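Entry — protein

Goal — C-alpha cells:
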Amino acid sequence: MGRSYFVEEAVGQYLSSFISTEKNYVTGLLIGQCSSQRDYILLAVRTPSKEEQSESPKRNPIQPKLSDLDEEWIAEHANQVSRMLPGGLLVLGVFIITSPEQSKDAQTVLRKLVFTVEKSTMKSRLWRLMENDVSDRVTLHFCSVTKKMLCRTYDVRDAKSSAKPADWKYQSNVSSSWLPLECAVGINLLIPLSATSASREIHKNIRSGLTDWAAQIEKSIFLINGQVKEEDSELLEGQKKASRGTSQPGTQTFNVKVLLPLPQRPNDRCTATVQVCKGSINVRGVVKCRAYVHSNKPKVKDAIQALKRDILNTVSDRCEILLEDLILNGAPDDDSNRPCHALPQRVFTPLAGSYVMLCDYMLGNESVREIQEHILEMLDQNVPTEDFEISEEINTGTYPEMSGAFQMDGTDGEPVKKLGKARPVLKVGANMGMVLAAAVALLAAAFSFHYFSN
C-alpha cells in the first residue's frame, strides 16, 4: 500500500489556477511534513520564470517544450525555498502541469526532478536523513485538459527506486492544530583557519567548524516547558484537554530550552591539540528557532528532531547568505584589524490560512518591502508587510581579545556593520557555485592581512 498525502484545499485551488496558462507546462515544489503514518502538503510553489523570460516575453514567442526544462534552475529554486522553511517543513516533492500531448514524458521528467531537488536541498545541510526518517518523496502530474492527477513516490535513498502509487486527499485546515515549538540558542563558535590550508579551502574550514558544532547540538538535552520527556512518549501526554468548543488550535506553544553538553567530563583525558593557524572566524549571537509538528499523536523525539534541524539550518543558512552577499557587493570598508559582519536577521511570515509561519532573512540595510518581494518571487505568496514578525535576537557581549579574529557576528540586534543590498535571488542561482568560489577568494584576501604572530 502506498503513502497517503493529506493536502490543504488551497493547494488544489493553486494548481487549478494554472490550467488556463499559455505555457505548455508549469513546474513547482510541494512543501509539507512527513511522518511514519501519514504525510501532509501545506503549500505548492511554482518555479519562477527566468529574468530574461519574464522581462522579454515578446522576444521568445516559441512556447517552451518539456525537453527544454531547466533542471538546474528548478534545483536552485528548491535550495533557496528550503532556507525559508522552519523546522518540521521540507520540500517533499515536485509537481508538473502539462497538456495531454506531453503527458507521456511527464513521469520521466518528474523522476529526474525529484532526485535533483532532494540533492539540491540537502547539499548544504549539517544533518542527514536518519534510518527512521521517511525518505519517500512525492511527484504529482496534473493534466491541464482532463484535470487528471497521477501521484507517485520515490525513495530518494535509492537511486534505482521505482515509482510507487500514492493517495492524494484534499482536506481543509490541514495544519490548523499543528504544534509550534520555540527556543533561543546562544552561539559562540570559534572556527580556526589552518595555516597550511590553501585559500580555496577556507570554506572547508568553515564547514568543518559548523559540523563540530552541529555534533554538540545533536548531543544536547532539550527541556520542553521545563521538563525532560521520554523520546518515545507523546508530546501531548499529560496535557489537559480543553472543553469542547473552547479549544484554540495552534495557540499552544512549547517553550524549549537547549542545554549544551559540557566540553569535557571531569575524569576524561584531555585530547586537546595545538594547531598553527593564520586566522579564525567567530560566529556569535543568539538565534531564535522555531519548528512545527503535526497534531496526530506526535512523539517527543519527532518534535525535538524538528527543532534541532531548525537550529542547524538557520545558522548554516545565515553564513551562506552572508558569503553570497560579500561576493555580490564586496566586503565593506573596515578600518579595524578585526572586521565584523552582521549575519542576516530572521523574519517570520504567516502561511495563509494556517498557524504555521515561514521565514526569510534580512541583510543589514534591506527593507521589509524587499523581503516582501523576495517572498513573492520564491514562494508566490503576497504577504502584507504588517504581518511580518522580526525575531528579537541579541548580541552576546564583547569581542574576544585575539589577534587575527574575523568576526561574523550572528546577531540580530544593532548590526556591527551594515551590508549593501544583495538579496541572492534566482537570477544568480545558476552560477551559485562560481559565486561561492569567488566568495572564498574574497574572504581569503580579507584573512591575508591577519596572521598570528609567534
Observations:
- Residues 53 and 60 are 8 Å apart (CA to CA).
- The chain has two domains: 4-50+67-176, 178-235+252-262+276-330+339-390.
- DSSP finds eight helices and 17 strands in the chain.
- The radius of gyration is 23 Å.
